[in-house]
Structures are given as C-alpha cells and as structure tokens.
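Consider this today:
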Amino acid sequence: MALALLSPLSAQSGAAADAVSKVTATFYGDAETAKGFTWYTAPASDGSDLQVVEKTKAAPDFSKALTFTGTRSASTHPVSFPRETVHKAEASGLKPGTAYYFRVGDAKLGLWSGDGTFRTAPPSGAFTFIDLTDTQAANEEESILSSATIAKAFATVPDAGFLAVNGDIVDNGSSEKQWGWLLGHAQGSLMNTTILPAAGNHELQRNSFIEHFDLKTPPGSRTYTGAYYSVDYVNAHFIVLNTNETSLTYADFSRAQAKWLKADAAAARARGAKWLIVLMHKGPYTTSSHATDTDINGWRGVRTRVAPMLEKLGVDLVLQGHDHIYARTRPIKEDGTAAAPFKRAEVLNGEKIDYEVDPKGTIYLIPATAGPKTYYRNKKLRPDFYRLFEHAEENHAAAYGPEGSWGRSVRGQIQNFTAVTIDGAKLTAVSYEINQSSNNARPYVIDQFGIIKE
C-alpha cells in the first residue's frame, strides 16, 4: 500500500520513517520537455523514483507512467536524528504544453508522495507567472501566513504557469524545521506548480538552497551559497542570479557569475528571446533599509557595478527581494538616470494602466513581501533618488505601527504578490496586496503597469 505525503503539521519534525516530504518541482533544462524534482525521506528509503503520466483523466493511472530514477544524498542540515535523505530526479522527453500528474518516492518500499501536477511550457502563445518574495518565517504560525499568501496568489491567478520566488524563502536556511514548515504548509500549492527560485541571504548557509531545488546550473559553477542559472520559457529568457557571492570586483557576485551573465544574455538574444527578465534577491533599486547598504550603493555595489551591466545587456525587467517594501522604478538607463517615458494608456481591471513603449532602460520591481516581515521607507535617501521611481509609497503596513493586538503580530498585516503576463511583444504586470484586517484578507490590486515592444 502506498504511503501518503507528509501532512503540513507533521512537516515540522522532518522526514518521518513512513513519509515523503518537502517536494518541489523546478525547471531543469528545456522547459517544454523536462522537469526536475526534489524530495526528502528518512534514510531507510534509498530509492529515488519518479513517475509521470499525462493528465487525461480526473485521477492518474500510474501503471501507465513514464518512470525515471534519480539520485540521493544525506541532508547537510538535519533537523534532528534520524537524519534525512535528499532525493532528486529529472523527467525528460515530455510533450510541450502538456499537463501531467507525478509522484515521487521509493517504488521498492511502496513509499510515495501524494499526487502532484505540472504543465510543461508551451512552444508559443501568451503565458502568466506569479512573482513573490521573502516568505521567510521565524515560526510555524508565520509559515502558515506565507503559505496562505501563495495559495491566495494561485486562487487569484489560476492560469499561472509557474511561481517565481526572489529569495529568502525561509528565515534560516540551515533549519530543516523551517523548510518543513513552509514547504509542508504550502504543499497544496507547490505540488501543483513549478518553482523558479532565487537564493536569498537567508539561504546562504552551506548547500541550504541547492539541496531543496533540482536546478541545471552552469558547469563548474559553485552552489555552496546558492545558484545562478537560466530558463527559456516561450519567448522570454529568465536569468536567476545569486547575490550571495563576492569578489574584489563585485560586492555580491563572483567574477565567474558576471562573466556567465554576459554570455548567457547574449546567447539568449541570439536564439531570438524577445524578453530578458532577471530574478535577484539583493536588487539595485529599492526605497527601504537596504538601499543605503554598501553592497548596494558602494563602489562594488549592485547599483554601481551590476545595474549598468543589466541595462547594457538589454534586460527588460528585474524582479527583486530583500527590502520588504513595494517599489517600482521608471526605466533606468546605464548611467543610473531615468529615461524619458513614452506611455500608452489602456484600461485593465477597471483602472488605467500605462504601458511603457520601447523603454530606453531597465525597470526594477520589488513586490514587497509574501510573508510576515515588512520594512519602511529609508529616511537616509536623498529626495532626488525617489524621482527614479514610478511607485515609491510608504509600506502600507506602517499604518498599523510596530506592535498590535491582532492574532498575528503587526509585522504580518500586509502581504503582496505580482502576476506577470507576456503576450508576444506585450508585458503586463498586476500587483496585489493582502491586508489581514480588511477586505476579508482577500487580494486587491495596488499597482499595474506594462511594457510594449514595437
């Protein structure tokens, strides 16, 4: 008899002897034909088996499944004894634009996860993805809040093809208990999507990021503090950077990563990528606490050294994390000034939306936080710095003060996420907010913008 997926509440204690836990599905190579999977078990399970079958019925028939065998290794950060085993496997030879069921586990023991689903990338057409960041939770209650944000995001954007996460997935990357909390409580969402994750500074501990995600990283690249990699999806090229590295040239990047970035972006353009989108945790343009950090605005900082590189490479949109506030720039040129906009107005969700037409610069967006932790505007910033931003309000959580008497602390009052749709030469981004004290904690639109290429 197959054993069930670890329940959310038992996830906090790690992999039980009769459970598969912390399952994630990621892009691995060709997004149209392949997928990567990671899961955890107790050491007694030494099988790393993956079964995939097309989703043609209401329930899967795994007797007709494609089967794949993966690898296993001991977890670097065991939550407690007994230690856990990390399993990884890749499915290949899949059909583009096709929905599949999957399960992972140990066929010999009859130990399986619950049934999950995913869809491979279509070869063409419009697509939508969800972007959020900083789900980091200091305790299990806060992880429930972060997981609820993910669930509400998918309920609001049910056609989202994948979930991009801009780092700080947990509060302490070396704590398997925290990974179990988040991935356990969010399993209802994460078992039915593909994750495009970036490493945050809270995942810089030894192997804590790469052990939880099966990613095809560049040959020879280091994955000790995180990972950098890229994915083609329809006509867009997604570049995921690791801001946990350092060098004499860059505060948060190795020179090897910077070299790879330039070559990867150039190769994507040569293949015909219409859009270049970057995910990075420590972003160049922010309006909160980290905006004046030396690794952001110092002589080796990402604003000083990396942002000009991104614009020169033709990056259209940078999705950031780290600063827990909502902010969106105007198109930023290589010299750090805002380009004069040429906008086209349309109506979306009953409101005006401005599309930047062929912007002469890169737009930077921080979708605030999907978890409990919020920051306020940085009072050290010069007033003229804010002229680089199209949207730079104070965090809406500020209205509630530093403490309160709600069931959760005030720091958990406001959560955000963004839905991005790419349809040929048109990109549309709609940002949502959740206020735990109003609108029955249902998401509502706070900002929307777009880019048109002519």
